[in-house]
Design goal:
By secondary structure, the protein is of the alpha/beta class. Helices cover 25% and strands 18% of the residues. The N and C termini lie far apart (90 Å).
């Protein structure tokens, strides 16, 4: 015989509508920059592509650059050191609380998500993998889109898989600009191809043309 015991009725919690926290204030703009931050996503073949960018961006590049390159989480990364040997810009492995600065490349450390905050600072997170990846280009670009909106640029370089495609959508939705490496110059076209398939890419360029395009894009034009 089944005996049912009555339990005291627990009042249901009052449900409030989900609210997206507003951006308290826009992050500071860098002098001479029409876009403040360039978010770069790369994977397989990315080191060569990133070295090309590092060698061909001028020392006075007016924006900050934030790089997510998929790396083996089991090993210490030498990415920042390798890039710094060729770069005309400052290069550092991103650390919690780093403040974005123009003419500086911040590289995500292996096994850490890298996020761009509204106060122009960087955060590191070991939250769950996104599409089996950490760091995730999607998370970085989505945080960049929310924080910098129309003053953000996304660049998707060579790589396998589709990481970065959702981030591209976010950048474009918030008014930013998207550049993607073309099939011919990309060692692996998975990531660039997935970005292009979103329909939210502004321009597709061979690798050798991307540095000049970035300079032209982010350098603020003087009023005539």
């Amino acid at each position: 015989m089944r005996i049912e015991r009555s339990m005291p009725k627990i009042p249901e919690p009052v449900k409030e509508p989900l609210r997206v926290p507003p951006r308290v204030e826009a992050p500071p703009h860098f002098p001479g920059a029409s876009f403040d931050v360039v978010g770069i996503a790369a994977s397989a073949g990315g080191l060569s592509a990133l070295l090309h960018l590092a060698r061909n961006l001028p020392p006075a590049f007016p924006s900050a650059l934030v790089v997510v390159q998929h790396l083996d989480p089991r090993h210490r990364s030498l990415m920042a050191q390798i890039l710094s040997r060729s770069a005309t810009l400052a290069v550092k492995e991103a650390a919690e609380g780093d403040h974005l600065a123009p003419a500086t490349i911040f590289v995500a450390p292996p096994n850490w998500h890298l996020l761009v905050n509204c106060d122009a600072r960087l955060s590191l997170s070991q939250s769950e993998l996104v599409h089996f990846l950490r760091p995730s280009a999607d998370l970085m670009l989505e945080s960049l889109a929310f924080s910098y909106r129309e003053r953000a640029v996304a660049v998707v370089l060579t790589g396998t898989g589709s990481d970065g495609a959702m981030g591209v959508r976010a950048i474009k939705k918030m008014g930013g600009t998207v550049i993607v490496q073309d099939r011919k110059s990309a060692e692996f076209f998975g990531m660039p191809g997935a970005a292009i398939e979103t329909g939210d890419v502004d321009v597709v360029l061979p690798l050798e043309e991307i540095p000049a395009a970035l300079v032209a894009l982010v350098t603020e034009k003087e009023a005539t």
